[in-house]
Amino acid sequence: MNHLHLNAAPCPELMTSVDRIKHKIFRKKFPVLGRALDSFYQLNPLFQSCAIASIVLWKIFIIYFFVHVVLHKGASASAGAGDLSVIKNAANVNVHASNPNPASVAALRTAGLEFAAAGKLGLKKIPAPFTGVGRQAKAKGNAGGENNQVEALALPIHSTDDKPIRVLHIVTALRDINNGQRGTEHGEDRLVKVFIPVLKNSVESMIAPPYNYQVDVYLVLGWTLTDERLKLIEDALPEGVGLQVWNDAIPLAYDKPSTDVKLKPVTRGLARQHRYVIKDKLEFYDVFSVFEDDMRVSGAHMAHFLEQSAELERLADEAPDTLPAERENPYQKQSFHGALSKTQLKRMMPGFIRVEVLLDEKKFPSQRDLDNVPIDLDFEDEDGGVGTKMFDPKPCCHVPGNIGKMPPSPTGDQVMIWETGVKGTVVRKMPAGGNGLLDWVMLQPGPKSKGQEFIGGFWSGMLGLYGDEKKPGAGDPRLIAQQGGWMATREQLIEMHNNQCPDGFFPPYSNTYKQEGLTLNNVEFWSGGFSIFSGTRSGCNMQRVVSLNPEEFGKHFIYHTANNKQKSLPNFRLLKANNFMGQINSVVKAAKKAMGN
Fold this sequence. Notes:
The protein is of the alpha/beta class. The protein contains 16 helices and 23 strands. It has helices spanning about 15-30, 30-40, 45-80, 100-110, 120, 190-205, 225-235, 275-280, 300-320, 340-345, 395, 490-500, 525-530, 530-535, 565-570, 575-595; strands at about 95-100, 125-130, 140, 150, 165-175, 215-220, 240-245, 250-255, 265, 285-290, 295, 350, 355, 380, 385-390, 415, 425-430, 440-445, 460, 485-490, 545, 555-560, 575. Strands 7-6-5-10-20 form a 5-stranded mixed beta sheet, sandwiched between helices. It has a 5-stranded mixed beta sheet with strand order 11-22-13-16-23. It is globular and about 115 Å long.
């Protein structure tokens, strides 16, 4: 049968109704399409079949691409940890969850933050009577219950029977077997050699006197624990410590959103997942400790953090609401002493610095050429006398024997840092007030605050020791002192979410965040400190404070127990904590001289 040539002029009497429609469309209205279709009918049947198949496949691809573009945002969030219902295989052992603090919850909900229901998680919560945990909290607002705010006194530093402090210790781990990268031993059982010993020691120190914290543990894992491996963790934890496990917690997303059309695991996003856990648990705990699996966090660290936080809160209560903005530039004109406003003090938190213990200085020596700042370890005591003080390694690095790769009693001269230095920090004299716990402090780098939020300090470069070299940027990764985690009270988290973080602290994330925070943001952003302590992207610009009292200084250092950075980094990055302490002391003495003291 011959095909109808649409560009010809057939006899109308011989045309069917379908032919008439084709003739009208393809000859009169769109003759170009008619000629193309004529050419198609003249093709070999095999070529015709190939052409039809190509058109069908192209249409399928268009539909597939359209569906992924439309559902892109929702898919990346719901397939990852944006929906906590993906938690699987939760193990529960007597969770120390308290009843929620109504004032804190009211303040958060006023800000639009809602909590995931316990039933959605599939995790059992066993609430205990809420005791107030040493705070006096009450909601203030109008008769309609709106505009609620929280007034809270700081937590005590130790837990008691009538005022228990409930701690949720969250540990994130990517793998249970080392892959040999970054100075680790390939094939080593990380769970047995690092993870469990560090977790056990950390928790035991938190629940022991004089701290007596009521601790629960939440594990965020990049793999699925077998029953046998889970049993190892359960057996290692002290009796009465709650345990919950989020297996296979790596979120799914478009790793390269501009080109990917298929969801895949985004390992860098594992460090983000603790935010969903905290949002769900915020009502039920007083302190949150969030660290990587090789970071040893002790009860002494937590007590020091709470004590310093309480002092900063007392100073904020006594401070004026606002002050004239401090000069930011040039740095030679910055204020480094005097009054601070509530706005400035509310941005301050106690900071931490990661350290390792040098295992073999002949094979992996520390830096030989220090920054051109003298090392001065002579400190003035309370009675006006001067004595030599060394870095105290006990708070960070003294551990019971036979724990992982940790020497039990290293000296202060064996402790080293690699992510900060005297060139990246400034010092400041804190205003009088509070309980007098804070005098001279070190301000760690990170924030990029402006105007009335800016907090100035005295930089070592003001001594003229660096020539024309400019002060390093606030976000310099070699100097920002990533912490390998962080801790915060519930009230501090509320303050950050409501008032300090431009896009909020808790999910869901939007605005400058992409794909619920999975695009670009890595472990250094979520747990290292960039998210909380820097001004990058959605950074909260919180200012870390380190006490320069030689008796307190060592309490700001946390042990990176893997001890692998000394093997993978060049030795000019490895700075002994003793040398760092002496250089900072030299800067403080120069600042005092500049004040006329």
